[in-house]
Amino acid sequence: MNKLAFRILNKIVSKPGIDRRTLVAEIQKEHPASPHEIAVVIADLRNQELLTEGDQGFQPLSANEEFYQKMQPYSDDEVLDLLINYLNKHSGPSVMTNLNNDLQLHLNREDEDYYEALLAENDFVKTTYPSGPTIPTFFISDKGKINLRKHGGYLNYLEAQKPKPVPEDIVLKYIENELMYDPVEVLKMCGIDIRLMNTILAVLGDKIHKYYGAGNSFPYAICISDEGLRYLYEGPKTSVAKISYIHNDHSSHTHGPNSPVVSGNFAARNMESISIGSMSNSSIQQGTYDSLGQIITRGQDELASILVSLRAIQDGLDNSIDVHKELISEIETLASQQKSPRPKGIIVTTSLNAIKAIIEKIAVNAATPAVVDQITHFLSNHHF
Length: 384
Description:
Blueprint (H helix, E strand, L loop, with lengths): L2 H12 L5 H11 L4 H13 L3 E4 L2 E4 L4 H6 L5 H14 L6 H8 L5 H13 L3 E4 L8 E4 L1 H10 L2 H8 L5 H8 L8 H7 L7 H8 L3 E5 L7 E5 L1 H9 L5 E5 L18 E5 L6 E2 L24 H15 L7 H18 L5 H18 L5 H14 L3
Parallel strand pairs: 5-9
Antiparallel strand pairs: 1-2, 3-4, 5-6, 7-8
Helix pairs in contact: 1-3, 8-9, 10-12, 14-15, 14-17, 15-16, 16-17
């Protein structure tokens, strides 16, 4: 059961009779999900006969009471999210046993002791011992109140603490479809301060090609290189150098309020440039698939046949199931490469290997073995 499904089911078990509008509103306060995503998961839970919906709102099915009693949260952070959000909404202090009962977590004594220790160490929570040194009492701390109000939930706070992608990685991801782009326009679209232009392009180094004379508002246009694609899909392979980005608020340039102006470690590499002279009547134009010319690669027909087989499998997938969603994503990646005038072997190989591993594991339908054979044959005969 994924995080969202657990949260929805736990909410219904703890609040039988809750209506759909209230359920969606409360879930969205605790979990970043759209109403459509929540509706899909609810439908899946109904199909599994884990809940019903009628005039009296949502109800857990009594036939599954044993399942509910054994139901456990997805992770420690999920449990802490429930506990901390509850403490934030209830002003009075609570002991772990009461929290377990009120939230219907069905934790045994050992689990209670474990999460009691996690709460005691969490700086969103203040711990006191009015009933003796072995019975901690919890209530929300000032830091917890401030950050829960700011972020809307403990999980949202944790998500906000994760490292943000550095500017050059954002740029590289934006141009990964192998078109040519004016770098000024790329930074504007990515919400990055254009004063960082020269630094970002220097850090990107041989991850991009430069086409002099092809830019609109810059001396050259940029396009991702094979090294750039390799970096995106395999990660850095060289030593790194420390480069700092310094943000100056006094500028006439427009940039997003959350522009990623940061310090970090980035690969130090030489720059590669290609001069193409004047753009007048040139076959190379910014942002068009035809601009880079058609590259003929081996195995295109075989790859197209594999994609047809995968599309047939895709029709039977359920997008609310994580592993199915992952498979659909890989199929779409493969399809985009198959359509590309410059399909990259490293991306095709990575996607095919991922697809093969997934469908071998889940055995989608009777056609699965044949598709696995197709992929295996392709990978053994085409080395990129």
